[in-house]
Amino acid sequence: KKRVLTGINTTGTLHIGNYVGAIRPAIQDSRNPDVESFLFLADLHALIKCQDPARIERSRMQIAATWLACGLDPERVVFYRQSDIPEIPTLNWLLSCVMSKGLLNRAHAYKAKVDAAVAAGRDPDADVSMGLFCYPVLMAADILMFNANEVPVGHDQIQHLEMAREAAQRFNNLYAPADKPFFVLPQATGGSDVEVLPGLDGRKMSKSYNNVIPLFEGGRKALDEAIARIVTDSRLPGEPKDPDSSSLAVLYQAFATAEETAAFRQELCDGLGWGDAKKRLAEKIDAEIGPMRMRYEELMAHPEKLEEILQAGAKKARAIATPFLADLMHAVGLKSFT
Ligand code: TYM
């Protein structure tokens, strides 16, 4: 069976870009009988960006509830919190010792942080935590711990996948017989531009641009309010619109069939008002996520249920990780004397 693995940082709430780009395809994939899915909450990674314990705690509950509300079946999928798998930080260390600093120096996220510090006249060595610098090593450990064949991620994560492949190759070359490598080389999938959902202003939907449509938080009201803020030109109802002049039609497309999208675009060309178009978009999105939001709210009211599901998931994950890590420890020379 093909192993597919992906994770989401638990640093805040999710938007429909996360849903369309990561959650929905991962859940669809997990229903394929030829796929073994590993989906997890990257809550150790979250500490890099967020040092507010209450926010971390809430976010991991929200994101756990989101996955389940969106249809993840914990019986079929190995669904867990990264922090519940102590084998991952241990593998992180083994990989740290075979990855070069030079490789990590090239990471986009690290370089962006250095550039920002320099631009602000600050010392980059003081601004960059070791966690941020070593982000790709921990991510490689997440992926290699379960020997994932495919990792569905957005464009921004492709470099991290290349680094994970590099780590796998280095470790295999150093420690594995040529015909019996420990790690398969993971492949990034789904990282095409089409799957990057634009936000209210047309740029990639992202918390850091403040242009998101929240997935569940704030309910239908927050959905309508966000959609009302989609940037459009000032053409009046009755005037023909260019469907590509705003992100409205692309957002519609993410929730509609090809025929529905074609019809919607035609109506814009024929003069549908922006206000009415926005109402239609909100209806379309809510038809899909409304029922999920109800399940989400139910799950959020039952943290003990979430806890039980995640602990069962951690058990399944560790049943794989514990013996595999033992093999790796032996390979590097860390084994009992007798
Ligand atoms: P994170 O939490 O930043 O993002 C989660 C996923 O959502 C995708 N995404 C989008 N897709 C389409 N359109 C958008 N506007 C959009 N915004 C975000 C991201 O590309 C990502 O796939 N490093 C990872 C978390 C991680 C991980 C891993 C992933 C940790 N370990 C191991 C895979 C395997 C991250 O930053 O995701």
TrEMBL record:
Q: Name one GO molecular function term.
A: tryptophan-tRNA ligase activity
What positions does the record give for the motif labelled 'HIGH' region? 10-18
What does the protein in this record do?
Catalyzes the attachment of tryptophan to tRNA(Trp).
* Biological source species: Sutterella massiliensis
UniProt KW Ligase keyword: yes
Cellular location(s): Cytoplasm
Which amino acids does the record list as binding ATP? G17, N18, G154, H155, D156, L197, K204, M205, S206, K207, S208
Catalytic reactions on record? tRNA(Trp) + L-tryptophan + ATP = L-tryptophyl-tRNA(Trp) + AMP + diphosphate + H(+)
* Subcellular location, principal: cytoplasm
Q: Which family does it belong to?
A: Belongs to the class-I aminoacyl-tRNA synthetase family.
Identification of the protein by name: Tryptophan--tRNA ligase
Q: What is known about its subunit structure?
A: Homodimer.
E.C. number(s) listed in UniProt: 6.1.1.2
- Has UniProt tagged this entry with the keyword Cell membrane? no
Q: Where is this motif: 'KMSKS' region?
A: 204-208
Q: Where does L-tryptophan bind?
A: D142
What range of the intact protein is shown? Answer: 2 to 339 of 434
EC supergroup of this enzyme: ligase
For this UniProt record, give its keywords in alphabetical order, as a comma-separated list.
Aminoacyl-tRNA synthetase, ATP-binding, Cytoplasm, Ligase, Nucleotide-binding, Protein biosynthesis
